[in-house]
Amino acid sequence: MKTFTLTCFILCLAFILSVSVLPAGATPDESIMSEYFKGDVNGNGEVDSRDYLIAKRIILKTYDADIIQAYASDIDKDGKINPADCILIKRHILETYNIETSTQNEQIDLTEEKLNAIKSDYIVFLQTNSSDHDSLTIEDIFVKNYYGPYNGCYALFISRDDIGYPDASVTKTIAGYEFEFPNNQPLLIYDNNTFYEIEEAYNSKIISKDDLYDLLWYFYKF
């Protein structure tokens, strides 16, 4: 009797473990998959019915997805998560559509040396437009957010430390993608010691549409 009870316990435990691997919202084991790719919303290394259900819950706002999961859910690359993406995931599972594998651009931290160089160039950038900035030092320059690199460029919010911006945010559509800029502060692209606003950088082919799309997801708000 004891042997039978122990056997049942072991079988039950095995069953519980088998159905609890990577539930919705869980963090995948890095040994299984180090990067989420298109369609692989839960990061387990394959596109299956669980990814379809999570994408559907993201649309219904009943699932708290992170940026990487949101990126993985946007199958048609329109910058939004909608029923069309769920349909494509379902079709991929049924083998009537093939989702092209792609992952987000890796965000690489700036070294202190590179950051100071960017600040120094920003001071020169300000000084070319106004003599009011002649006494600035790198201690007066503030980098709020940094993203990148993209195509060898750096995207960042940078300004004088004593400059304030309005509370209202501004939304701009660039190459069909909607970017929401907090406090109406422009996102600048730093390339070859020069600064460009993001739309100018795209129109000048300094960054590509793929760069814009990838960058978009670091702005995405649920």
Structural account:
The chain is an alpha+beta fold and 222 residues long. The protein folds into two domains: 24-104, Dockerin domain (Type 1 dockerin domain, Orthogonal Bundle), CATH 1.10.1330; 112-216, no CATH class. Helices cover 35% and strands 16% of the residues. The protein has seven helices and six strands, in the order αααααββββββαα. The chain has helices spanning 2-19, 49-59, 67-73, 83-93, 112-127, 198-203, 209-216; strands at 141-150, 153-160, 170-174, 177-181, 188-191, 194-197. It has a four-stranded antiparallel beta sheet with strand order 1-2-5-6. Helix 2 (49-59) packs antiparallel against helix 4. The longest helix is centred in the N-terminal third of the chain and has 18 residues, at 2-19.
Largest sheet features: 4 strands, antiparallel
Tell me what portion of residues adopts beta-strand conformation. 15-25%
Topology, number of strands: 6
Estimate the mean pLDDT confidence: 82
- Tally of alpha and pi helices: 7
Can you tell me the overall shape?
A: elongated
What Rg do the Cα atoms give? 23 Å
The neighbouring-strand order within the major sheet is 1-2-5-6
Fraction in helix: 25-40%
Structural class, from helix and strand content? alpha+beta
Order of helices and strands: HHHHHEEEEEEHH
User: Poorly predicted ranges (pLDDT <50, ≥5 residues)?
Assistant: 2-34
Span of the ends, CA to CA: 55 Å
What is the count of distinct domains?
Answer: 2
